[in-house]
Amino acid sequence: MFRIQPQILLQSPPKLKEIGDTIKNMGFDPTGKRYLTALFVYSSMTKATWDSKVDHFKKLGWSEEEICKAFHLQPILMKTSEHKITAIMSFLVNKMGFTPSAIVILMSSLEKKIVPRGLFGKDLLSKTLA
Predict the structure, then answer these.
(1) Which stretches are annotated as coiled coil (predicted)?
(2) Where are the alpha helices (DSSP H) in 1-130?
């Protein structure tokens, strides 16, 4: 992660420790892969930007707990623009009929269930159509 996102190292040591402690307090395991991603995401924005993103999710119907869970599952979500978040949520809620809570649940199964099954299905389709 430090090779890919070296700007983390540009933080002053006290600031980096503060960010690390904040991420740990959010429930991230410092030895886990998501901790580094969360560290990068959180350190790449100001407190005002972070609060703006949180407020935006709340306006879209997410609770504080759901926002924290979503950040824990997919930290990079907070780097997504508010415009893109609105468009995705609009599609999933208005066109597909999902509730904001269901979207967080989908995110939790995305990595372990949806993606592998989707890739397996795609592989099966490509083999039967070839």
Answers:
(1) none
(2) 13-25, 33-43, 47-59, 64-73, 82-90, 100-109, 115-129
29, amino acid identity: D
- Per the structure block, which two tokens stand in for 88? 């995705």
Contact indicator for 38, 23 with CB cutoff of 8 Å: yes
**Is the distance from CB of 68 to CB of 75 less than 8 angstroms?**
no
**Rg, the chain, Cα only:** 17
For residue 19, count other CB atoms closer than 10 A to its CB: 18
Q: How far apart, in whole angstroms, are the C-alpha atoms of residue 34 and residue 111?
A: 13
Closest to 62 measured CA to CA, from 98, 10, 114, 25: 98
- One-letter identity of residue 90: S
Q: Each residue of 23-50: pLDDT tens digit?
A: 999 999 998 888 888 988 998 888 999 9
